[in-house]
Amino acid sequence: MGTYDPSEEKTYPILTKTDPPLMQSNNMVEQLQKCGLLSWIQEAVDKNASDLFLSVGEQPTLKIYDAFKRIESNLLNDNQLSEIIEAFITPQKKERYLNGYEVDIGLDLPGDFRFRVNIFRQHKGIALAIRPLPYRIPTIEELKLPDIFEDISRLARGLVLVTGPAGSGKSTTLASLN
Q1: Which one, of 103, 144, 147, 145, lies nearest residue 121 by Cα?
Q2: Comparing C-alpha atoms, which of 74, 76, 96 is closest to residue 84?
Q3: Which of 12, 74, 93, 158 has its CA 20 to 30 A from that of 6?
Q4: Domain annotation covers residue 43
Q5: pTM beyond 0.70
Q6: pLDDT in tens, 17-35
Q7: Is residue 1 assigned to a domain?
């Protein structure tokens, strides 16, 4: 049995301590404003979207309560998405992406949210999935979880499975148990 290497995983349910959110410079924020990403991110936060999808040949798209809503914009192209990625990708992540892997990046922008950004390729070209992550983890009470979750959070042994579809709150539920 080999050792666990998180860099070999394709996606992460939460940001890891080994890959902290990137604290962004004013220059980077200006670049993201210029290419439109900041306004799309703001719309995602304002509309409580679970995800913002950017894909070549499509308009920016929000996922809100399992429904997809396009943001009024021109169709995105490879150059636009490359410009967005270049504004915040680290040299190590860029090399990994250029070698054919998808990459996950934590992005920390001014305001009350961090973002998990997954950069990948699909049949049309470059694509990004951007998920807002609040700085403050809600409590068990705020999530209105049953009282049994308090007991589960204090268990010293055992296996607890938290399952559900994408965007249903699995990671938030687990984070609230700590």
Answers
A1: 103
A2: 76
A3: 158
A4: yes
A5: yes
A6: 334 444 445 677 788 888 8
A7: no
